Amino acid sequence: MTAGSEPALQLLPLVFADPGEARARAELLLESAPAPLPASIAHQVLGIWQRDFGDLRIALTHLRRARDLAARAESADREADVLATLGVALVHAGRTRQGLASFERGVARGTGHTRARVLYRRAYVWWVLGRHPEALEDVRRALPVLRQLRDDIWTARALTLRATVHLALGAVERADADFTAAERLWDTTGQEHDKADAVESRGLAAFRSGDIPLALRLLDEAEERYAKLGTPTYMLSVRRCEVLMAAGLAPEALAEADAAIALLDRLGGQSTRKAELLLAAARAARSAGDAPTAIARAAVAVRLFAAQRRLWWETHARLVLIEARVAAGRRSGRLVGDAAAVAERLASFGSPAAPEASLLAGRIALALGWTADAERHLAVAARSRRVGPPPARMTGWAAQALRARAAGSRRGVLEACRRGLGVLDDHRMTLGASELRAHVTAQGAELAALAQEASLTHGGPRRLLEWSERWRATVLSTPPTRPPADAALLSGLTAYREIAARAEESRMEGRPVPALEREQRRLEREIRSRTRHIRGSAPHEGARFDVPRLLDLLGAGRLVELAVVRGRVHVLLCGQGRVRRFAGGPLADAVAEAEYVQAGLRRLAHPGAEARLPLVEAAGARLQELLLGGAVPHLGAGPVVIVPPGALHRVPWALLPALRDRVLSVSPSAGSWLRARETEPPRDGRAVLVRGPGLATGGAEVPELADRYGTATVLEGDDAQVPRVLSELDGAGLAHLAAHGTFRADSPLFSALRMSDGPLIVHDFERLARSPYRIILSSCDTARLASVGADELLGLVTALLPLGTAGVVASSAPVNDAAVIPLMLALHKGLAAGLSLAESLRDARTALPSDTVHQATGWAFAAFGAA
């Protein structure tokens, strides 16, 4: 050790405690023309900084200089330490052979403590390369020395690395034990970057154990820690993408991966990280249904991994590439062989993804009619159905269902689907946020479709109804979990409301709003993140959908559930003590017709469009043929409940000729209608009338309704602020909200009603202990919903139904503000006479003037639920 080298040595631990400060001190040290040994340390520190947070080419220049200076200082241990750091950088640059050679020299040159640190870093490189046995062996050799010397920092790093390798091999319990031991050591150090990495690793462990809310919370915490240090977070992005995809948020994962790739390219960062991000992007694109993007990203990832000699990673990328090609419609014997080879190699690695590859090989073989080959591959995949995390078990049950279908066993198909969906039910209920519950149902779409196909072919209409209900609107079956006192979330909602109100005011005054919009988006991300951290508290209820109970409560009415199997609509008509099936048309044709009708209603909301009325009515007749078919003569004379699939939620059902003069209501599922039908109204039945700002008519119906109800609570002006409105709505019998509605297709839970202090969003409604028994939303687009997951709907209406609301009246299209007033007054007249929302809305439509604008306004509104 030479004079002056002691302060320089302090820079090495500082680079992982405070990277920016370490970089500044190293640059300052080099300005003083130090001796070779401290100069070597300074260049090594700068190399580490550039390697992890900057330009890898610059990193290699610094590290080679550090190596040469160490050799001049004639310090074997110093040279060994630099050789290890250089080896890591070379591997990250894709120069695997050179990197491993540098490690060989480092292991040979180092002794004792230094050699143990070199072995740890080589273990890290083995992990990067996907060579897990070698990684575990080097950690095994390094740990005793590090522990004996009481080197807490490097011992904690080695334990964290070993835990990460265990996770890659699916050994979650071993990983948890190592993470726990490492965390105890980190608490005794000031290594802030390492601590952030430990939090990130715990997030990965939580995800591997199936706890998505905890994983998201820990990854967000890690990101906050990294942000304070000013360091990029490429590996964190890879891990967050994995968690987001498991939560059904594939488009969000793809956006994050692509943004990280762009940043990495701008900085000239690590080639290894780019390959991993490309793989994450490919997986996300595949899950989002974007096969061309998935193919492009996966193909580049395969090439990079191959060039980097990372066989474990390359094999996982090949799996995604094959899956994307199959999703794009390719089927061939070669793909069967490729998928089988990938499955075999993944199994040899001990990868949890091996069953997924076997399932893929089986699916392709089935599509080609190769039943024997399919059975062989599916049998291997099916072994995972009883062990492992939920996705692995669902893969196993999907394979088992396909085996049963190939064998002609309807009972076997339904049993496998029941068991697989049960796994997903349990997993779904660990999620507190309704957004996550809705999106994650996409993982059960294949099982639900297989069960519906089997029921359609062999089971009869009642069985098809049961399975259609089994996976429809499940997010509405239980209320979202609400944190009793989350001060940060409440503060975020308040700040969001203030910023959104200021942005709206600026827009109306013609002032620029980019800064306000950026802050609004930031707050949205914060609110969304905090709600996703909430764990579910409601246990899964295993009670089956009760068809006899449904038929009994329908009385003289009918419930029409539209099931979609293999792209065609099947009409399930419930009533008169039985369930009958009628053929509908292609779903794609119905969706196109519904979009045409919606466009027509938007035009009819304005005077002067009368000539379009016959066209819209003709489209309504075509929709009826596609969606109701031969069921029309059997609808009877009583009330009708329509249960459409998510893709058809915007159909204006009152426009269909057979439904135009009926008592008509809409429900996301038959089970949801049953729950609404059996919901008891509150005892006091108080009415709340809310008038928001900026309405063209000023909410002119509200004063007249206030006179009619007498004791109703009226909130307008400064009284119509979100906290006061929520307080009054909680537990009310009837609520009428005259306020501008905004639907957010990109983020449906930020759909809003405009109050005097800003938007009242879906997240606000979810904080109610009990939403009003009946709610009337008199503005445009308040019934618009986003179809997500398997067949879930997110928006204002569906947020209210699981919270105690039994009935909602809202519009699914833009409406004429002036024409709404007589409709609303007539609607409340019916309610005052003791009618239901559906009965009152039917009578209100008939009481409107006969002109086109009023007709279109009446068709745009629908009654949801059963109150």
Short note summarizing the structure:
InterPro entries: CHAT_dom (IPR024983), TPR-like_helical_dom_sf (IPR011990), TPR_rpt (IPR019734). Residues 623-865 form the CHAT domain. By secondary structure, this protein is α/β, with parallel strands linked by helices.
Explain the overall architecture:
The chain is globular, with a radius of gyration of 31 Å. It is 62% helix and 9% strand. Helix 6 (76-92) packs antiparallel against helix 7, helix 6 (76-92) runs parallel beside helix 8 and helix 27 (487-508) packs antiparallel against helix 28 (514-532). The longest helix has 22 residues, at 487-508. The chain has 867 residues and is an alpha/beta fold. The strands form 4 sheets. Strands 7-6-8-12-15-16 form a 6-stranded mixed β-sheet, with helices on both faces. Among the domains are: 4-227, Serine Threonine Protein Phosphatase 5, Tetratricopeptide repeat (Alpha Horseshoe); 490-533, no CATH class. The model has no long low-confidence stretch (mean pLDDT 90).
List the main descriptive attributes of the protein structure presented here.
867 residues, alpha/beta, Serine Threonine Protein Phosphatase 5, Tetratricopeptide repeat, 6-stranded mixed sheet, 5-stranded mixed sheet, 16 strands, 62% helix, globular, CHAT_dom, TPR_rpt
